[in-house]
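Input/output pair, single chain:
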Amino acid sequence: MLHGHGGDIYGLARRLGVGPGEILDFSSNVSPLPFPQGLKAQLAGHMDEIRCLPEVDSLGVRIALGRRYSLSPDRFLVGGGTTEWIYGLPRLLRPEKVVVPLPTYSDYADAASLAGCRVEMIGPWPGADPRKDERILETLAKSATENSLLFYCNPNNPTGRFIQPEALLDVIRGCRTATWVVDESYAPFIDRDTKSSLITLGMPSNLVLLRSFSKIYGVPGLRLGYAVGSGDLIARMAKGARPWAVNRLAQVAGEFLCTQDAYEDEVREYCRNEKERLLKRLADIPFLEPIPGRTHFILLKVLSPWSAADLTGLLEGQGILVRNCANFVGLEGELIRISLRSRQDNDRLVEALGRLASSRTA
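Output:
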């Protein structure tokens, strides 16, 4: 079992002897707003269905996705989060190598290693400067050799870098002997699908998109995500898919959430305004330096004499989780990552940081 991600509210709650609801979790990059209106009622109305097996292949969710994107349901595979396909694809495709641009989500390399694949790390590109996008794309293209598998997270976790989908698509179309896996888990926070995703651009046969319900709707505990690609590639993936991989309540939620475009707009609007406000407040914290990015989460440099471990440890003692980025390969220096929460919670974080700053100068 692999560890080292954000969002472990249960472990911290046990250590502090409190309930999980008392932990302020800034380490998990999910929607800061309450669930879409009607979701709880939808789940409650289908509770009796857990007495039966779920749909073996989540057909209802695939039909809902097909309706949303004007694609055949056969173009989608639904699983227990994008993790299912991150770990499944290297085992299924058996590539000559797996290419992982750095820094990025650690599971890409972990999944490739567990599948016995050779891993080629490229980069790192630690910032989110768009002037480097062309260089990144050129390096990706050079690494996309025959029978290779490339993972790319767009927008990137943890830096918040976002490469325009059209530019990324040009490179993918020019490297058809490689298989590209583009993880768009955070794309809905950037803009609507027509401006943030490859899904609306006519995907080539060597591309698989990974999309998550967890992040934009704030439901990571349901474990629901999907892959979308060409019919042939998805059919090949389906042969290796687990039956009943998604529980019934997650399937019910997925069908409902596919219709919640207005909620996504609300999340984006909130995040734009609240991130601007929070950054202004963080400017008063002398030991933190924000690194520019396009996402609702913020990468922060921790300045001497503080360390990321010191800071995360002291905040945990107050029931506040932030992400220590020490295990992100390709990031140098002392860094933490925080994700937006409610305005009240964000203010509590700033106040806690302010008390720590005062304690060092007292």
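Residues 261-282 form the longest helix (22 residues). The CA atoms of residues 282 and 332 lie 21 Å apart.
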